[in-house]
Amino acid sequence: MRYVSTRGAAAPRRFGEILLEGLAPDGGLYVPERWPAADLDALRDLPYPALAHALLAPFMDDVPQLAAIVARTYTKEAFGSAAIVPLRTLESGLHLLALSNGPTLAFKDIALQLLGNLFEAALAARGETLTVLGATSGDTGSAAEYAWCGKRGIRVFMLSPHGRMSEFQRAQMYSLDAPNVHNLAVCGTFDDCQDLVKAVNADAAFKARYRIGAVNSINWARIAAQTVYYFAGWFAARRAGAEAISFAVPTGNFGNIYAGFVARAMGLPIRRLVLATNENDVLDEFFRTGRYRPRRTAQATSSPSMDITRASNFERYVYELVGRDGARLAALWRRLEAEGELDLGAYREAIAASGFASGRSTHAERLATIRAVYERYGAIIDPHTADGVGVALRLREPGETMVCLETAQAAKFAATIREAIGREPPRPRGLEDLERRPQRFAVIDPDPEALKRAIAEACGA
Fold it and tell me: Active-site residue among 108, 151, 412, 452?
């Protein structure tokens, strides 16, 4: 399998060549030259590690010992059950896909635990080191840090918006005592953090000097890993008797739901991909109107991991809309940078054919959803999952089964849960004192030069 840039000006490369990279040299994102076709009959009864290997092998066909790496990643010990992503039925036609049973209690673990093992194997084979640079709005950071904690040859620099995550999320990241992990709290929003990562990646000399790699969802391996749980969830829903199966996906950066788009392109018969936003509703507005209008700044909400107004993976989706024309995509992105928005109404037929529906959820609505799910089904869901469930219930059509992707465990957002149902969410054993543990982080301005200085100082330069 070869990978090309969405902007069309970079030479095709193999997976092993892009695994440790962020942006392509022309500023675009890597995508496969083609979508491999999935054999549903051969896949439907496989346990999760075997399913993951079968689906990932075409994307990662130059990775030695891929089967062993996948088997080492997806274990009952790491994810709490042999199913890895068990399906929970709330009622006929409504299910939760449990994605938050990994080490950091968030769906990001599914991909990042694999990425950590892939990176370590690749670096050991090459005798190289890597500086991992990422940005988080809440859960990517801790998932990445736990995936790379103690890994040989890897330093991690994780940017987070200062004061904009939940207390649990901050403590989970900042209390990690690992010499190869560096937390940088940026005086700004997640979009500012994301812009800093892109700015450093765009400095070719600095990137080469410090061997900068990416863990954000711009890294293709993360998208590939996330496609697996769509297949697992679809097969589980079918075994439960479902027919017309759709997925409801809370998203801000478009990576989680884009993985569903990839699974659909591979042949998984997903009826609809139901996108749910919070008050930062740039993506919902796009799918309703055809206009993509990133905001100047994100609004702080009670589902903070989705407080994003510029969705990194949206570029990959638009690349498909324009018929995989890299030059056309590059021209559109130059217009976006110049004018601050894109009118993609000319592609409305392609948008409609891609299988998306969308909706938004407000603070009051997510509280009501958390309360309703608790009272009706005895389940306590986090506010991001509540955005997805609320939109799913609003948009569900007769005969349609909704599989709602869980994003995190409710314990990570205790204040919102207390407001919704008047009680504390259950907390996993061993994390009772998390917020009281010592925390290690540095505060920086949203300035690329400040970030470069922090990286250079930590690397001893």
Answer: 108
